[in-house]
Amino acid sequence: MSVIDWKQRGVGRYEPDDRAALDAFQRAHFGAEAIQLCPDHFHWLFEEPPEREHEGPQLWLCKRNGAVVGQQGGIPFALKVGERNRRASWAIDLMVAPEWRLRGVGPALSETHSSASDLAVSLSMTEAAYKSYKRAGWLDLGNVPTYLRVIDPLRCLRVSPYGGGLAKLVARIGKPALATASMGYGLSAKLLGVRLVEIDRFDYRVDDLWEAASPQHPVIARRDWAFLNWRFDTTPQADRFRRFYVMRGETVLAYVVLRVDHWKGEPVGVICDYLARPGWLVAAFSLMTELARRQGMVALMCRTLNAQAARPLSMMGFLCLKNGLHTPTRMMVRPALDQPELAGPTGDPKNWFVTVADSDMGFKGLGE
C-alpha cells in the first residue's frame, strides 16, 4: 500500500477531539510518566511556538477504527540558510504501535510531516525512526558531538560513564593544569572588560545579538527574542534554566543558557544553548567554565554542532566525544520535493549550528 493511500485512510492533523485516543496511545507506548502526557507541556510545545501554523498543531496521527496507531510530531521554526529564511520543522516523537509497523504507517506519517515545510530535520532519533527516515531518503549528517570540560578530575571520573582512555587522559592532564587553563582564558576576558551577568529572562537585546552573530553561521535556526522567550522563559521547565549575558559595557556579546543536572549525585553543568558575536565565543565559554568551577560542578558539558567552535573548545580543554555520553546523537534532514536546492547547504554538517535547544534534545536531563 502506498504512502498516498495511507494518507487517504487515516493520517491527519491532531484535533481536540483526538485527545482521549491520543492519551491512551501515548500512555501505552511512551509510558505513564512520559512528558508527552503533561497538558502544560503539550500546550507549550504544539500551540505556542513562535512559528506556529494557522492550520493547527504540528502533530499528525494515524487512526484505525477510532484508535490512534501512530503519531508524528513537529516543532516549526525559522531556519536561516545563507541569507534567506526558510520554513522548517524539527521531527519529534515518531511512534507506531508494534502491530502496525512495517505496514506503511511510519512512512506515511513522516511524509505528511516533511511535506508541510521547506525542510524537515530530525535530531537524536530512536533506532527505529532512524531506519524509517533512512529508507525514506533522508540525508544522514552524522552525529552531533558532545564537548566535555572536566573541572574536578577525581570526582568526575568517579561518576563518568567512561573508563580506560578518558580516565588516563584526565588523570594525565590533572586538576592544576585544567584550572590554570580555565583561569587564564577567564583572566583574558576580564582584562578586556568582559563580564558575566545572570538575568531572569531574555529581553530585546538578543535581537541585536542575533543580527550580529547569525551571518557567521551558514545554517542556523533563528535565535531571536521571540524564540528564546518561548524556548526558555515560558516553558513549563523554565525554572531549570539559568540565563547569562556576556557583556562589555552595555553591549551583549553573547548569551549562554545553563542547566545544572546531577549525575550519580554530582552536579554537572550543561550548556543548553549559546550564541556569540564573532570573536567572543572563547570569552563566553571561559567565563562559564570559571562559574562552574567556583560553584563546585565536576564538569561542564555542551552538545553542539558548530564547526567554528571545535578548535577553540579544544584549546580550552574541552574533550570532543563524537558519540556522546551514552549513544550517538544522529542528525538527518529532508528537503521538500519542491526545494531540491536546499540539499546542498543543509546536507553539509559543517554548515550547521545546533545545540540542545534545538528540537526536543534538551527536554530531559542527564540520567532521565
Automatic annotation (TrEMBL):
Keyword terms: Plasmid
Domain of life: Bacteria
Family matches, as InterPro entries: Acyl_CoA_acyltransferase
SUPFAM superfamilies reported for this sequence: Acyl-CoA N-acyltransferases (Nat)
Name this protein carries in UniProt: GNAT family N-acetyltransferase
Organism encoding this protein: Azospirillum lipoferum (strain 4B)
Native organism taxonomy: Bacteria, Pseudomonadati, Pseudomonadota, Alphaproteobacteria, Rhodospirillales
